[in-house]
Design goal:
heterotrimer; A alpha/beta (281); B mainly alpha (290); C mainly alpha (281); B: 290 residues; mainly alpha; MetI-like fold; two-stranded antiparallel ribbon; 12 helices; 78% helix; globular; C: 281 residues; 2 domains
Chain lengths: 281, 290, 281
Amino acid sequence: MKKYLSCILFVCIAVLMLNACSNDTGVSPGASSEQEGLSGKISTSGSTSMEKVVASLIEAFTKKNPSLKMSFDATGSGAGITAALEGVADIGLSSRNLKEGEEAAKATVVALDGIAVIVNNENQVRNLTVEQLGKIFSGKITNWNEVGGKDELIQIVGREAGSGTREGFESILDVMDVCVYDQEHTSTGAVITAIAANSNAIGYASIASVSSKISTLSVGGVECTEATILDGTYQIQRPFLMVTAADKEIDDKVKAFMEFALSKEAEDIIRKAGAVQVKGK
Amino acid sequence: MKIRVMLEKVMNVILCLSGVTAIAAVFVISLYMLINGVPAIQKVGLVPFLFGQTWRSTGSNPEYGILPFLLTSVYGTFGACLVGVPIGLMTSVFLAKIANSKIAGVVTGAVELLAGIPSVVYGLIGMLVLVPNIRTIFHLKTGTTLFSAIIVLTIMILPSIINVSVTALKAVPKEYEEASYALGATKIETIFKVSIPAAKSGIAAGIVLGIGRAVGEAMAVMMVAGNVANMPSFFKSVTFLTTAIAKEMAYAPNGSLQKQALYSIALVLFIFIMVINMVLNILLKGRKEK
Amino acid sequence: MNESLSPKRKVYGVLLQGFIFLCTGITVALLVGLLGYIFYQGLGHISWKLLSTARSALEDTIGILPNIIYTLYIIFTTLLIAIPIGVGAAIYLNEYVVNKRFVQIIEFAAETLSGIPSIIFGLVGYMFFCQKLKLGSSILAGSLTLSIMILPTIIRTTQETLKTVPNTYREGSFALGATKWYMIRTILIPSSLDGILSGAILSIGRIVGESAALIFTAGTGYVLVKNYFEALQTSGGSLSVALYVYVYEHGEFGVGFAIASILMLIVFTVNVATKAVKKKI
């Protein structure tokens, strides 16, 4: 009896799986009913900080072009640039400027991202200057009471060595290579969780990932908002780049996606994902 | 009839190949580990690599010394065993010899459930519960320490130790225990002087399993150990061999010395585990022959 | 009986008994604490929406339906690959003992495989299946990697079951003129089905909980695909991988605990099923 039951169960599961689960992610009935639009595959890879922005753009773009398949691999800015140069990915995504040695790549700015300085919700400090931040992260200021907070040692949480976010943060604060971390994590979510769980922690993350679990500080009196990023008064910011190989012909569908990302349509999408679209570049 | 004979021969070969797959897999894994792990060791030098105390893979003057990781893995595993083996062993004694079958059934079921918790979940709970509490209890700057990692590893290896030890203890022939009682020993004395020694090889197998899990654990440990490449110290942030690989693997550019060095760490880890397995297996087989 | 014990033995006995209860108490407290915490944090976040939709970056919603499906696909494919090879190897080891040395080598290889940490499987799987065999980040690559990981378990459990089949079955079959493979096919395998099944169920537990190896080989995709065969070529995250991504990349630990609770229920069901099958043997 048990054997029959397990056979039936197996067949049921097999049928369930081999069948189409054709629900798409909320395709509105008003969308193009003909299979118009581009088809084929576009592969992208790169910065984890850009994940939300890229995922939203991909989702919107593939809704308009249902026969198109797009993928994004969150491998990191450096790996993304390399993938684009080697032809492994059609578009590389980087959350930092190109370095020397990467001249063979062509970068298009798709958005600006603010790097928020984050602390625990219990922390009363609300503002720090760029100088103070530099001293904290290089270990010269060690206690919160030196900057107007409680008498508690400052715990520094950051990203791992290859992260675009870390590089952006450290280079603007001019503390590259001298930062002394207490915790290093490989992703934004882990940094946020670590800071949410420790009242004395300070760290940094893309403004797009910020949630109510932690609090952001203003830097030199400037809050991190769309306006302050655009006019540059919020200093800790870095570009979101789409990177392609400069000497190769860009495929039509890839071009179409990049144009979409720079278009007016994408402005809201990018804003909702937490970054700021750069117009006319 | 000839078809039958042909079929036999064919099946013989196919089944043999199935067996060979296991060998092939080990061979391929070892080969890849060696091919990818050796270049960096050659470039950096075996002694600076294994015994260098600084790991700074990015930045202006990269250094690739993995002593901090090596020592951390050793201390971490040792610490986890030091605490986990007694707790696990005593619990299995309880389950195998003292508890009545209903309680034993429920607790054993729960232990099996514990064994099934994915490591990411341990990491998450460790980060939310263990780390902040360790920070406040011990008045530290950060709760992510070697100590926290040892606690998490201990909890993770408990099910391995318990499950196998319970089986081993239950398999001890009743005659041994009854003879012990006949000689006037109490239940506790029988357990400690007869049953446990008799189940030694099984218990050792459970410990080997636990050690294997502790040394190979990356996900859970990454959330509670801090991942800073410090030389290991109880209350400092540390990085294990496994987390060193996991931390930078996604970001290291292909073909760079950094990536090659990460494969070298994997090679060291691989050899480390092979050596532990072999040593413990020899110890086990030695006992079995006694 | 206690009266005749020396005080030293009495103290010894009481201390040890106390130690046993203490350790057991610690283990039980950990069990209850961990499981309780997971369900406490997670059950509140389980909703029909979570279970039946896919993640939408545009609408900022999370759904794990694709991950559930990917998990099923991975389980199915891995077992499909590993069971024939594992059972075949066990049969060979048990029934075709030609060269003892050879048998020892195979058994040593299987034991070695079971000790290798999953991160190494992930690395080698990525290098061999994803790059060398050009499978890319895909369910197929992930299943191939996992099948090597569970091979030792299948071989071991099948071997043990084969050993319990009485020799009289084999001899009787030969006496009736059957050839070896015929005997295996008609007598041995049917009588060992329960053991093979319990090995398979045991492996399901391992597959479901695995994350490190899968992230490198099967990726973190979250898009619904049309059917099984398309899924084999796509990057897809299993539930464990999804847990990792939502917690570490997005900081959504509520969802993480919800997935953890679901995983616990799956593991529980798997354990109960294993026991039921074992009872039948």
